[in-house]
Amino acid sequence: MSLEPHQIDIIGYCAAFLTTIAFLPQAIWSWRTRDLSGISLGMYSLFTAGVGLWLVYGLIIEKWPLILANAMTFALALSILMLKLRHTATEHKK
């Protein structure tokens, strides 16, 4: 099967939309409840770093589906990671 470049981009945008929107409920739940007990600091650190690298990769190869999806997911993951870091620091002070 041979696809045109715009068809390939449509697949990329669909994948970007689905993976980013799937992440949104976790972010909203974390912001609203501040309940981060089920969030692993190590996993979220690695995940956020990985998404950041996917963003850099997308920028290097100039592929907008990768850039947009990973920029949005990076912002969401980083915000949850920052909440987790604050929560962890607060727990250690007690």
From TrEMBL:
Pfam family, one: PQ-loop
Topology relative to the membrane: Multi-pass membrane protein
Source domain of life: Bacteria
Gene3D superfamilies: 1.20.1280.290
Spans through the membrane: 6-29, 41-60, 66-85
GO MF term list: sugar transmembrane transporter activity
Subcellular location: Membrane
Alphabetical keyword list: Membrane, Transmembrane, Transmembrane helix
GO cellular component: membrane
NCBIfam families the record matches: SemiSWEET_2
Name under which the protein is recorded: MtN3 and saliva related transmembrane protein
Organism field: Polynucleobacter tropicus
Lineage of source species: Bacteria, Pseudomonadati, Pseudomonadota, Betaproteobacteria, Burkholderiales
